[in-house]
Design the sequence.
């Protein structure tokens, strides 16, 4: 691969650019494959179904949130409030399905609880979008408001109490395994496929990329920029709501202080490593999936081989910086 | 006076007026609000945030952002606590040095590797946090009880708590730097238009680098105060401080797009958010209402919302009439 690039550079001066271009395009995938090969050789019990399940369940919520985040970032925005929105959804659902209002009808209670939580999360996202689209408030600041207030709302709803529950009908979304596949993995895959299809094949997807590429030009071209922005933030809230439900279902408990804490950074890191431009205009959902998987697998590899979690943080930092630097070379 | 001038005036002095109003309200409503004890407690605690917000203000004026300040402060507090056993100066030097190191890396990533500030400082946020946990072996690190290091947090200079004195000096230097030196003017020029500044021959890379270095150093100093105030280096402290600092800068009227800003109103922004917290505590003490910590962060969020909506309105009027 390196040879191919250097032999070309004899004929064309700008050919070393191709190496960077190649790495920038497929670097995450290559890194992921290298990691898997490394683990197959050096990590004990790596090629087991259990390892796969552990990694997939841990990465699921990040991918779900990062999918919405990718769409937001594709419009040139950012959503810092996802963690707090997860906490709101996670606090609201148990409040409803544990309440005595529904008598003994567990199925109805769970359905209403989940629907209300996801609706609330989507409304939070809409609020973000409203601030960004209507008032032209910078996305960092606009979503900072719910980042600060949102967790407070979740804590206030539950009086900062831990809500513990044992409701199999609800926890199915976190613990169920139809055909041996965890339900949240199915949700994740479905969301990724829908979002990827939407981004590539629909008018809405084109509007997202056009908005991120050049907002003014998109507006002049007749694209409903405001509505597009409203929609992506609402979708991001929706995804965060689902992730919040999955997290509390896995834990059998909802702690408003902890659900989704730091999620915004994990999601943004996955998006950036995956190759989506943070200034907007170019986005890849599959890249985000690969990015999240890579970060997760790096952490797993280090932990499984006895490196402490704190050191794994530093490696994670280096990988994020390096991946983004590599993509920068492609544009330069 | 036309509307644009009016808008600019409110944008600049609005936060000062709001601060004065809040202090008057507290003085009128609560008996001990302006007592020496309450005032020194508030300024002592908020000095850390003031230092971080000062660095953040400069970074934001260049059009960048520094997400790493919170975990840099945590790293600084750990380094300061470990170094405090070699004397007070060593403690301060250790904390500030650790902060400068993070700032140095940020500066390199942003100016040399051309990585977007958001991502560059996001990765150093993680790295600094990891380094703090590694250094401290994941527990709090006690400071030396005999070296006098705790005076950095708890000492008094005449009637001024030492942390507040440090913050005041830092803000004075910052204001002079911004308004009366070519470096300060370059900071604003970079935020106004980086390419244009470069074409004009301004030392864009060097000044940008310096700004991140300074932000790291100030966050390290905040870590020194954190260690001295809490008698220990605290590796898990500082989570979310970066966003508090950004909120303070925004409340202070500095736009996140860069190119304009003021050091003094940033300090007012920090005090406004800090005193708002204090007022809520007093109000709880009155017994009329009982706002838990959860509701206090909701109030803070609403406050930020109000400020941001007001700013959006003012800037729109500003651009419309300009």
Sequence:
């Amino acid at each position: 691969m390196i040879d191919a690039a250097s032999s070309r550079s004899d004929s064309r001066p700008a050919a070393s650019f191709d190496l960077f271009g190649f790495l920038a395009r497929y670097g995450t995938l290559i890194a992921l494959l290298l990691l898997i090969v490394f683990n197959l050789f050096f990590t004990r019990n790596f090629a087991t179904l259990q390892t796969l399940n552990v990694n997939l369940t841990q990465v699921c919520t990040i991918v779900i949130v990062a999918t919405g985040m990718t769409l937001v970032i594709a419009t040139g925005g950012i959503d810092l409030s996802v963690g707090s929105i997860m906490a709101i959804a996670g606090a609201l659902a148990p409040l409803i399905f544990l309440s005595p209002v529904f008598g003994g009808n567990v199925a109805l209670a769970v359905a209403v609880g989940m629907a209300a939580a996801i609706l609330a999360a989507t409304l939070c996202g809409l609020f973000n979008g409203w601030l960004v689209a209507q008032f032209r408030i910078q996305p960092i600041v606009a979503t900072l408001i719910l980042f600060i207030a949102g967790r407070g709302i979740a804590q206030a709803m539950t009086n900062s109490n831990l809500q513990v529950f044992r409701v199999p009908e609800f926890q199915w979304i976190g613990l169920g395994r139809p055909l041996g596949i965890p339900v949240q993995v199915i949700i994740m895959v479905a969301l990724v496929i829908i979002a990827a299809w939407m981004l590539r094949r629909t008018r809405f997807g084109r509007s997202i990329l056009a908005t991120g590429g050049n907002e003014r030009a998109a507006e002049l071209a007749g694209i409903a920029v405001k509505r597009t922005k409203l929609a992506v933030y609402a979708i991001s809230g929706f995804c965060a709501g689902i992730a919040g439900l999955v997290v509390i279902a896995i834990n059998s408990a909802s702690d408003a202080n902890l659900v989704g804490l730091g999620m915004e950074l994990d999601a943004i890191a996955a998006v950036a490593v995956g190759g989506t431009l943070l200034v907007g205009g170019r986005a890849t959902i599959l890249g985000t999936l690969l990015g999240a998987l890579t970060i997760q697998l790096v952490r797993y590899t280090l932990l499984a081989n006895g490196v402490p979690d704190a050191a794994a943080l530093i490696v994670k930092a280096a990988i994020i910086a390096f991946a983004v630097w590599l993509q920068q070379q492609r544009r330069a | 006076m036309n509307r644009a001038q009016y808008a600019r005036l409110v944008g600049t002095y609005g936060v000062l007026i709001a601060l004065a109003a809040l202090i008057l309200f507290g003085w009128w409503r609560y008996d001990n609000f302006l007592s020496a004890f309450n005032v020194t407690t508030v300024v002592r605690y908020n000095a850390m945030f003031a230092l971080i917000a000062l660095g953040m203000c400069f970074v934001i004026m260049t059009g960048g952002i520094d997400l790493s300040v919170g975990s840099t402060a945590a790293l600084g507090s750990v380094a300061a606590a470990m170094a405090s056993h070699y004397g007070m100066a060593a403690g301060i030097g250790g904390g500030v040095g650790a902060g400068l190191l993070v700032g140095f890396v940020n500066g390199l990533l942003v100016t040399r590797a051309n990585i977007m500030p958001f991502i560059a400082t996001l990765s150093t946020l993680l790295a600094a946090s990891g380094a703090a946990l590694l250094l401290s072996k994941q527990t709090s690190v006690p400071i030396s009880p005999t070296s006098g290091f705790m005076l950095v947090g708890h000492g008094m200079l005449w009637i001024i708590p030492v942390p507040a004195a440090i913050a005041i000096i830092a803000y004075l230097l910052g204001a002079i730097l911004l308004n009366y030196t070519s470096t300060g003017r370059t900071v604003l020029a970079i935020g106004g238009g980086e390419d244009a500044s470069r074409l004009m021959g301004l030392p864009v890379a060097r000044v940008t680098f310096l700004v991140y270095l300074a932000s790291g150093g100030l966050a390290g100093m905040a870590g020194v105060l954190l260690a001295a105030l809490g008698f220990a280096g605290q590796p898990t402290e500082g989570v979310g401080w970066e966003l508090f600092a950004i909120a303070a800068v925004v409340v202070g009227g500095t736009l996140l797009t860069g190119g304009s800003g003021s050091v003094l109103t940033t300090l007012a922004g920090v005090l406004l958010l800090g005193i708002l917290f204090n007022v809520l505590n007093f109000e709880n003490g009155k017994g009329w209402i009982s706002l838990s910590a959860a509701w206090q962060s909701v109030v803070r969020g609403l406050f930020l919302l109000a400020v941001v909506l007001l700013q959006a309105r003012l800037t729109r009027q500003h651009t419309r009439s300009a």
About this structure: Strands of chain A lie at 163-164, 253-254.
